[in-house]
Design a protein that fits this description.
The structure holds two protein chains of two kinds. Chain A is of the alpha+beta class. Chain A has nine helices and 14 strands. In chain A, the strands form three sheets. In chain A, strands 7, 8, 9, 10, 11, 12, 13 and 14 form an eight-stranded antiparallel sheet that branches. In chain B, strands 12, 14, 15, 16, 17, 18, 19 and 20 form an eight-stranded antiparallel sheet that branches. A four-stranded antiparallel sheet of chain B has the order 2-3-4-9, with no helix packed on it. A four-stranded antiparallel sheet of chain B has the order 5-6-7-8, with no helix packed on it. In chain B, strand 5 and strand 6 form a beta hairpin. The longest helix of chain B is centred in the last third of the chain and has 11 residues, at 270-280. The chains are: A alpha+beta, B alpha+beta.
Amino acid sequence: MTHAMPSALHGADTGRSTAIVRDEFIPGSFALRDAWFPIAHAPHVTASPIRRLIHSQPYYLWRQGAKAVAAEFHPLQLEASKARAGEFTGGSAYYPVLERFGYVWVWYGNPQNADEGLMPDIPYLPRAGAKLSPNKWGQIYFNCSYELASENLLDLVHADYLHSNFVGNEENETDEVTVESTSETVTMIREVTGRTIPPALRRLGIPCDKADYRAVAHVHVRSGAIVLYGKFTPGFSQPLFHPLIPESRHLCRNNYTFNITDAPFIARNIFPLFSYGIGPQDDLMMSQQNPLYQAERGRRDVSSRFDAAGSRYRMILAKLVRRQQEGDFSYEGDADPGADISSVLGCARAD
Amino acid sequence: MANNELWWPVCHSEDVSTTRPLGVHLGSERFALYRDGLGALRVVEDRCPHRRAPLSLGRITAQGDIQCGYHGWTFNGESGELCGFPNLAPGERMPRCSISTYLAAERRGLVYLWTGKADNADLAAIPEQPYALHGREFHGSVIHPMSHEEVVAGLLDAPGLFLDYLGVYFTDKPQGDPRLANGLLVIERAARWNLAGEKALHMGPLRHRADFPLLLRTHTAPVTGETTAQLLDARTERLMADILIAASPCARNMTALNWRATLYPEAHGRLAALYKLWFARGKSPVSMSSRVDTGELARVLPGVGEEWRAFSRGRNTDNKIATLVAIG
């Protein structure tokens, strides 16, 4: 799929520098565009308008009847403000909107390029949406740019260390990590045998001290939509859709859905609440990293082999930024964000 | 910091442990402090070179090394060298990297951090304060929303706005000119009982009492502004209570103040009895104010503090303080 878009660089209006220091990772320095963002959980969008942001661009969301609407302006000021409508709504003040997988998705970029085929696939969520109990979805803010939060999810070593109480530590019999990528996505597959099961998980229904574990993180670099899938054998699977909505250089919103289906009742309902324990642990670190990455120049990070997925992410991000700086917002031939990834994740499709 | 070859008091000795690192700011720089397996004080830059997380959010290993809380990268606090991280296979080579380490020393219950070149560090350059522990001691920390220069100038011009001496009033303006003793600026102020509050001095039945039976003597290090304030009986010059105030610049141009207070057991008189009672109740009758009345501070007329400000900026070097320090 290729979408050429001869348009001015975006970024100046959000106060961001469009200059990237070559080979330096400066999260939040460039607003990547032309992508679908799951900006809100579908039940949050009602007849009464809500306001959300993508790279500081305002999105007002509400429903007209059953149909979700997204506009640049509050509905009460829409008519009066229409003359000020920008290029991201093609001058109409209305953004392209779709409702899929239990989310309202909006397009950030040239509306003429808004193609449903570019929407990320989430195989374990029904495309038409499903009524889920409120403890299976929620919102968490991370006080950092979405790039740092994306890299965090590609880095499973930190999970063994920072979140060991929730997901287990590094004491595995074997541990193999594979990294795959396209020009738009990074996929990290981790296969572990003999993983020590922490007490919290044993209480939730994994009936042994050690289990095998397969975890996949599939990151859409442009949109920050991250599809996570983990499975303990014996045990249950952890299908976590973890989109990171970049509101600013300093803040991203995680509209997550954690719909475990194959675990005992208690685990199905308690495990998703771990997000409120794990999220703040990550935020404690990422919020501290963010200002250092944005202010420091010339000090390179030291990496180990465990950072392969994060390093690949940085490389693909840098390439995308470079292309968009040059005015190329298209998707390259190898990129197919909407491709079925159920076999990569190792899960069954929900529909 | 105008002068980067200094020993800066940054925290209390009790704050630095063998289990969790302590993060401190000194100006815009961040440091992590801890004690290694032998109890030796270690100071490193508060930044992991792997993914820039603060090392102060990490932990101390059983071997006495500092470990980052994000990915577990572990560093030796003496050499700064990376010495391991989780998931490493046996015999696997680590990336070569290290963190900056700094010199630190402890005096009078405070930790002093050297901000200059290690070769130039001279422990004798830590100001000799007259503060000494006498029996029970209290300590605390406050952060004032003003620059280090403003805090030190304010302490010199209006100590009453920064210090809480239970039941004591002292004048803003010093008695006589500052003098230099042991490299410290010594300033004295008249003081007296004021249990009824300051207004009573001017309006109440105490207004005709012109006697000032107490004396507040401050000893201030000329550059860092570290100060010992001593309350004395004016007639006998017998010491009653000391407070040591360590000011250091911290983030956002604010100032961290770590203070320690002690009471002389041999002090006697009504005020000493009150102070002893307070100590016995587990409270310090002498402390730093947690808030400064900035409106009141703005109205304080320039005095010694203004001279100090000019001295610290290297201007008007013919003023009293500059002359004293030059002679000293």
